[in-house]
Amino acid sequence: MSHHIVELRNLRHVYPDGTVALKEISFRITHGESVAIIGANGAGKSTLLLHLNGYLAATGGEVRIGDYPLTKATLPHVRRTVGMVFQEPDDQLFMPSVYEDVAFGPLNLGLTGLEVERRVNDALQRVGVGHLREKAPYNLSGGEKKRVAIATVLSMSPDILVMDEPTSGLDPHARRQLMRLLREFNHTKIFTSHDLDMVLDLCPRTIVLHEGEVAADGPTGDIFRDDDLLVRCRLEKPFSLQGCPICGGR
Ligand SMILES: Nc1ncnc2c1ncn2[C@@H]1O[C@H](COP(=O)(O)OP(=O)(O)OP(=O)(O)O)[C@@H](O)[C@H]1O
Ligand SMILES: [Mg+2]
User: Fold this and answer.
1) pTM (2 decimals)?
2) Among the atoms of ligand 1, which is closest to the Cα of residue 17?
3) Ligand 1 in contact with 19 (CB < 6 A)?
4) Could you tell me the CA-to-CA distances from 29 to 87, 112, 206, 211 in Å, in that order?
5) Which CATH architecture has domain 2-90+159-241?
């Protein structure tokens, strides 16, 4: 299943104003892995994810999806393979209704009629927003927008799911629902998050970014036990590893 592999080779990104957001990032994620990319604000997480389906072009180095480098020629294939949920749902939702936004991807894949209907209903249901299908996306609450944005990607059944802060803005019930959904998605998953308990729960592997570089890449449990690394990268332990403030950790 090499077509589900994601590989970065010395990826570098410099924004037009001269900000060096990524410096020589290299890693390889293989089929079925569930990987978290964590780091402080401004570490480069969103910039990195935006390269995985060509929303940003590398200043240097290479992105490979499957057996091919990401180029203009492979971009349409990459966009079908990699489903991307942006950090800001407003960047993802642009149609007059929720239904049309979620149907947009399947229609672009060439699907029609009942299959599109089935995919839209299924995706909306999986994130618990079936009742919003006729609403205008710009009238939704922040958490509702986020869930619809996730549905726009689920409706395309991507082989690789990439999500930038998927639980931000979600209420506890919606967060739990999303975590269940992610656990059941058994293709490749890559997401950034400041929700470190979710990372610990869902991702056996974690990559730590710090000032545009990979500071660590390894088993999530090891990363969260490395106090020096956490301090250096302005990270904290997940709440579940901090001990209970009331009973003193028992
Ligand atoms: N369009 C842009 N032009 C110039 N600099 C940018 C642009 N977008 C991001 N940056 C800068 O690039 C760096 C990395 O930003 P990025 O958004 O990737 O961080 P992040 O790790 O996703 O942070 P957060 O946790 O806040 O989402 C930051 O220093 C940021 O100020
Ligand atoms: Mg970000």
Assistant:
1) 0.93
2) 4
3) yes
4) 21, 33, 11, 21
5) 3-Layer(aba) Sandwich (3.40)
